[in-house]
Amino acid sequence: MTFLQTLITRMTPRRFRFNAIIHYSGYQFALLAISLTVLISLVSWVGYRWLYAKTLVQVEEVLNVISRIHVDQLTRWRNAHFQYANAVSQNPLLIRTIQAARRGEAQAEADLQQWLAGQRVAYQQRDTVFFDQQTQRCIQPASAMATCAELRAMQPLVWQAVIEQRQPQLAPVFYPPQLDNRHAAPTITLLIPVVDTQQTGGELLGLVVVRYDLRQNLYPLLQNWTLPRLHSVMLLVTQDGDTPRLANELPAIEIPPNPPLAKGGRGDLQIGMSLIGRPELGATMFMLRVTDLWGRKSVAVTQQLPESDWRIITLAPLDVLLAQTHHIGLMLLVVSLSIMLAAGVFISLYIWRRRGREYLRRYQYERQRRELAEAVRTRDEQLQHFYAILLNTSLDGFWLCDLNGRFLEVNAAYCAMIGYSRSELLQLRIADIEAVESEAEHAARLIRLQQMGNDRFESQHRCRDGSIIAVEISASYSPANGGQVYVFLRDMTQRKQMDQVLAIERAQLRSLFDGLDDIIYVADPHSYHLVYVNETVRRLFNPQPIGQLCYAVLYGRVEPCLNCTNAQIFNSDNDQSYVWERQNEFNQRWYRCADKVITWSDGRRLRFEIAADITAQKLHEQQRIQLEKLSALGQLTAGVAHELNNPLMGIINEIQFCLDVLPNGDECADSLRAAEHQTRRCMDIVQSLLTFSRPSAVTFQLVDPREVVGQTIRLLDYRLRKEGIKINLVVADDVTTWRLQPARFEQVLINLLANAIDAVSTCTDKQIALHLHQTTTHAQLTVSDNGCGITAADQLRLCEPFFTTKPTGQGTGLGLATSWSIIAEHGGTLEFRSQVGTGTTVTITLINWQPTTF
């Protein structure tokens, strides 16, 4: 154990001692060492034989370990060459030169040979030297190679040596006798074969022999040995390419008796080397088992000189190394030392074993890292292949360009879109196909893209045939490879054309809807929010109705309408419109509504309604009904009034006769006068019925309406002043003469003003307004008051004969009916607008007010 540990400790670099001992032995090695020391202490000769045999086996095991390390070193060196090759492949100029040389271009072949010659000269002129102790100068590589050539010519110098890596023994090949005569003690050496058999014929390059005290080299701890001094041979070789080569032959060097030991127990020969640009030739140790000329087993250990491309090889006979074990005293000393060191070794191995786990973990990590790197490389190739297929099969165009705007890559979709081939596009720049932005604007956009990272915009590109296409561009910036821009493009020409057509059709449809006087709106049936309205809704109700409640905008309500038709149209199975009529409480207009369920653009089922204003139709219908009623009533009252008129005249005559014969102051006279008054009132009613039922024979005249209105106000002046009512008369400047029946038109005004005086009688601020104006189509007279107002139910019966809301005895109910009949004779209409508590407005509209219309 001590011998092998010392051997490995002195002949291996420090960073490999733990791996060589622990990684391949572990606890088994510790148990074997302890068992070995116990057996040797009991039986010395058995221990000697067993130690001898075990030492050989262990040396072979160590040789296997270091051989594997050497294979790993060569593998890393080969990988370094691969990396160098890859680095060369990154040189675009060199790659193009090699490709041209392969095509047979003479100039490219000459350029390539010139480049290779320059590389060889540069390598030979490196500052790689070693120091010669005898001449006290540095030897350049060229001189070393010349010396190698001289050694190669030494054919008589034949030695016999064997390298036993897997074969037991081989025959010797070279031997220089003068070297053996130079040294008194037998020496052995290791000959390095040459791989390049075409130039050297498989010969050996040579060797260098120096004398050295192997005892000081291998066994610095065993100072009490009495055997003859051990001798070793130092070989100084260089490693050029895959094969180590001999550098130079050094003459015998005088070594001081006790030279200072360098790191690892090796004597410092003061040979300086330099290793420049060769990281694959790091310090590595090799241990070889050889056979010398006399058939003796020997040990050879090689080690890379630090910071140089040189390797030193140390050899010693194995029997000389193990000669000390033949002596019992030395054996007992070794056993004693091993016993004392057994506990320390066991503890050390226990500690080293824990470190061995870390070594194994690092080894597994390195292996996993290489496997992962290979997997990543494979995955990267697969992704690149996938991305290539994806881009080439995409319907959208793709760019890859640099910051100067030059195309680096395009896909087939963009080539088909623009009309250029891929090779033609790779020769162009973005400014060559951009149809909207100038080159300065495009450069500014690239600068903004570098700052923002990505951008999305629309532009236009010029095709090869000169046509212009609209494209939508999505660009992203990557700082890799000096800055590149990845761009995806989509042809928007057809979509732009479709958008224009849709915009025109949408504008036409909107213009059509907005041009209708009907109310058109779309509302959500659940939330009652308006989604769409036409211009009529905005003009009549609210200029900004979208998003507001339909019942609040259209009807002025705070809750949904009681007669809402959502249930009818959404629960119905048929797809027909639901048509119905209603009066809007908000503006008192009548509408015919057509409701239908439609599907909106977002998939929602919404309420669609078209509401046509039928207020005029309703009014005409009421007028028609009124005319029919009045016609029937007129026929009836004409006959009844004629039959009642004669009896009433007879009653009056009899009452007057009685009054004439009665004396003055008789009690019956007052009663008869009261009866006469009531009878005459009945005759007035009969006369009103006759007036209502029979057309008047009064002819139309051109009359100034202002005189008729003024005459009416003067007739009612006493009552107006008595009630404290303020009259406000407004006459437009364009009012001229109207074609009227003055007396009958005055009767209409008296009825309207009398009703207004009665309506404002309970108000504190009593006001009545009259407004006259005319247009080219009609003339209007409006009578407004701020009185109590009329209910909606009573407004439907205002023109019915004998209908009145006044107390009994204050009205006959024929005033408005007669007024309506008179206005109808004038070819006009009588309209009432009233709200309870705010007042009433009566509008007289005369259509045939000009003389030329008759």
Ranges where pLDDT stays below 50 over 5 or more residues in a row are 1-13, 59-75, 123-288, 304-312
Radius of gyration over alpha carbons?
64 Å
The number of distinct structural domains comes to: 6
Overall form = elongated
Beta-strand proportion = 15-25%
Alpha carbon gap, first and last residue: 146 Å
Largest sheet: 6 strands, antiparallel
Strand order of the largest sheet: 4-8-9-10-6-7
Q: Helical percent range?
A: 40-55%
Oligomer, anyone?
single chain
Short summary of the structure?
The chain is of the alpha+beta class.
Blueprint (SSEs and pairs):
Layout: H1 2-11, H2 14-23, H3 27-42, H4 44-89, H5 92-102, H6 106-124, E1 130-132, E2 137-139, H7 141-152, E3 158-159, E4 162-164, E5 174-175, H8 177-182, H9 197-200, H10 214-218, E6 233-240, E7 243-246, E8 285-291, E9 297-304, E10 310-317, H11 318-321, H12 328-393, E11 397-402, E12 407-410, H13 412-418, H14 422-425, H15 430-433, H16 439-452, E13 454-462, E14 468-478, E15 484-491, H17 493-515, E16 519-523, E17 530-533, H18 535-540, H19 550-555, H20 566-570, E18 578-583, E19 590-599, E20 605-613, H21 615-661, H22 667-693, E21 701-703, H23 705-715, H24 717-723, E22 726-731, E23 738-740, H25 742-759, E24 767-774, E25 779-785, H26 792-795, H27 815-825, E26 828-835, E27 839-846
Parallel strand pairs: 22-24
Antiparallel strand pairs: 1-2, 3-5, 4-8, 6-7, 6-10, 8-9, 9-10, 11-12, 11-15, 13-14, 14-15, 16-17, 16-20, 18-19, 19-20, 21-23, 24-25, 25-27, 26-27
